[in-house]
Amino acid sequence: MTPPQAGPTGPVPRTPRRLPRPSELRPLLRLARPDPDPVRRRLNRAHTVADLREIARRRTPRAVFDYADGAAEGEVSLRRARAAFADLEFRPSVLRDVSHIDTSTTMLGGPTALPFAFAPTGFTRMMHHEGEPAVARVAGRIGVPHTLSTMGTTSPADLAAAAPDTRRWFQLYLWRDRAASAEVVRRAAEAGNEAIMLTVDTPVGGRRLRDARNGLTIPPALTARTLLDMARHPHWWANVLTTAPLEFAALTSWEGTVAELIDTMFDPALTLDDLAWLRSTWNGPLVVKGVQTAADARRVIDAGADAVVVSNHGGRQLDRAPVPLETLPAVVAEVGGEAEVILDTGITSGADIVAAVALGASGCLVGRAYLYALMAGGERGVEHLAVLLTAEIRRTMALLGVSSIKDLTPDHVRLRG
């Protein structure tokens, strides 16, 4: 018999052991039945935006995934934007009643159930054949706005028919042909879009090296490389080839790269005079997207804009551009009393959205995150993302000791570095 081991104050007693009875094991052996729905199986494994991104990466052709996931040059701007959110410090207040959490607020003068809108993204149907209508329908169901891009793959009229109860905004690039731009604005107005969001950070196309290396064209060309990719992603190709052709809904047909399109059609001579022209043709809320300094925020508000989006285009234009989250406080200090300030770029969680609102943003634009979700599971993927973001926003607010969006202040966040 092995003697008991001595401890600091004497022998240490051993824990008695026994064999478990079958009745005790039965509750532990709860094997789940296999789910016959492959989309639900995939989405049930996604607990974060990063999980959705990984599913999207596996299910989508490399060139298509890289178009959504990539950024300009060395992708420094995008990494810094995400790092700024990762490095910030939340400062909670304890012993607060957070039994009821109110996530509702207003953006561009209208109600939104959560402090974000879905951002404009180009060629969304390339990511998944359900495209912009799927995203807009989810936006309507959860009570947030959706923004259609000039380079979207659904027309303003078709999107209005697909999501009639959704608050809809339209993102505009001004072309060299002003008459064509005016026609796009007219069509957006007729389709019931309540705001125009003018993007101003694209005088030329950013150098997106992933697209160049992948040889991505719009629409994707059938080369030896893409034929090989078909074998790896048959469902994606089957959906692309058996649904309406991929083309820009607000543009004439185009065959080439996105950068070539920007350099050919968009106007590099855009100035404040053009913003004044747009203000004279549009009576609704006018937002300027792509503001990266407080001085420029002041200039565009003085020229007639109602709101600014602090954004570096998701890191897809100028690499090593200012980090939007770090720029936000200065822009809010400059124009926050006169205009709404919205944040874009680098957002990968509901906690990021809470942090931006605490620093003075009226809300955020969520872009890549919903593209990952769309690639992962179509409309159901975007719905899953909405559930994740909602839970993250509510949980972060509760842990901060904040029961209402309006009670978030800069005291709840500290930017590090």
Automatic annotation (TrEMBL):
Keywords: Flavoprotein, FMN, Oxidoreductase. InterPro entries: Aldolase_TIM (IPR013785), Alpha-hydoxy_acid_DH_FMN (IPR012133), FMN-dep_DH (IPR000262), FMN_HAD (IPR037396), FMN_hydac_DH_AS (IPR008259). Residues 1-27 are annotated as: Disordered. The keyword Metal-binding does not apply. Its cofactor is FMN. Residues 41-417 form the FMN hydroxy acid dehydrogenase domain. Gene3D superfamilies: Aldolase class I (3.20.20.70). Residues 1-14 have a biased composition (Pro residues). Belongs to the FMN-dependent alpha-hydroxy acid dehydrogenase family. This is Alpha-hydroxy acid oxidase.
